[in-house]
Amino acid sequence: MFELRAGDVTARRILFVALARSCGIAARLSAVDGTAQYLLQGIWLDAGFTNASGTGIIALQRAEGLREQKYFQDFSLARLKAGCFHTLRFKGLDEEACSDADFSFELPVRPGRYRLTAGRRLQDGSITGYLTTFCVKQGQTSVVALRPPVGQITAAPPP
After folding, report:
1. Is 22 in the same domain as 82?
2. Burial level of 34, CB count in 10 A (0-12/13-18/19+)?
3. Do 75 and 146 contact (CB within 8 A), yes or no?
4. How many domains does one find in the chain?
5. Position 97 in a domain
6. How far apart are CA 94 and CA 135, in angstroms?
7. Which of 56, 84, 141, 148 is the most exposed place for a label (fewest CB within 10 A)?
8. Domain for residue 118, yes or no?
9. Is 83 left (phi over 0), alpha (psi -120 to 50) or beta?
10. For 131-147, how does the pLDDT look when each residue is reduced to its tens digit (9 = 90+)?
11. What is the CATH number of the domain that holds 66?
12. What's the whole-model pTM score?
């Protein structure tokens, strides 16, 4: 990419991380959305390949007595972008079960509108679940309840 001076966003992000590291600057690709980031005074900052800046926190609060929840298997999170929700991927897991031991319930994410989808397939093949949408604002924590799915899948109105 460097020699050709051409490449997609992912290639630019990878090149940035490689160049920053070669100069002794701590850099990474975000585990949430692959954004190139660098460490400045103990804070991970976006490298600037997008218009968004800063992060907020999604704090998933598990209901009392709720059994272990697995990302992708029991619930997922998605961010609204260009009119469509895009599922968030964590730690390089691609639709694999991610247990409580592997999953952080406080997630730094870009500001925006998000959707939590939770569900469970029953023995008769039917599904119980729920959808809820919420906003994450820069520098703020959005607490989202992770509760047992009951009844038919319904959508909660935005806050």
Report:
1. no
2. middle
3. yes
4. 2
5. yes
6. 24
7. 84
8. yes
9. left
10. 899 999 988 999 998 88
11. 2.60.40
12. 0.61
